[in-house]
Amino acid sequence: MSKHANISSSILLTITVSLLTAGPNAFGQSANGGMVTARGSGVATGEKLSRIQAKMLSKRAAIVEAQRNLLELIEGVRITSGTTVKDMTLQSDVIGTRVKGMIRGAFITSENVYEDSGDWVAEVELSVCINSAPLNCRHKPNLASLLQSALDKTLPEKMYRPESNSASSNSSTEPRSTGLIVDLSAQEFAPQLDIRIQTPTGKELYGPAHVAPGTDWLFWSDSLGNASAMTDVIGERPLLVKSATIGNDSRIIVSEDDASDIFTKNRNGGDFLKQGKVVFVIK
Length: 283
What we know:
4-stranded antiparallel beta sheet, 14 strands, 25% helix, disordered N terminus
């Protein structure tokens, strides 16, 4: 950078109201969220800079500020009830590198670069996807998938397997289920990135070990109607479970009957759990 250039930047930070935002206790109200957004602004001026150089440098300064603030926000996203992304990145250099790489790959959601009294001013808004719930995050990298491989995997003996004659079977005329909706709207539930569906005895039906690494596996909605409309995720005939409760460490507990039904319809429906075809409904 030229010694004659004077680059300054000021931060105008905003957080998109979303399901997962900054801080282990700071969760937004829109369950269709799933993005974190930060803004940065930069000003460039200098006697030796051309208009094009000043314009580019002001935008670069704004992007750097937005990236720095995105990192701060993402570090506060909840993994479990007592763990944040920052905790995980401190434990693993690999995860830390992945998170920083995701910040560098943040996408611009708005920008405004203009000239003011000879200076160039840039305002840039950057976003990253926390999960796959937003439509514009369906085909973008997201934090939930990025961290999935680092989450504790349930051992095979802890996976749910019904007794040989306890699982119901679909009738030959019954349409196959194409996905799963778990209605948690009656519960006080703080969303997080380590989600597991279990039976009252702790047997797991769904969690990070059930899907292939990198699979989009966390989808949220703020109403049953909106969840049902997510047909690109759960298909036209999802199974609905409404009797789930919240256990320790925000584990989602379903009854033995519901567990048997989920297991059977998943098996007969082409293993929609392995494909991450699950939507959680919260307030």
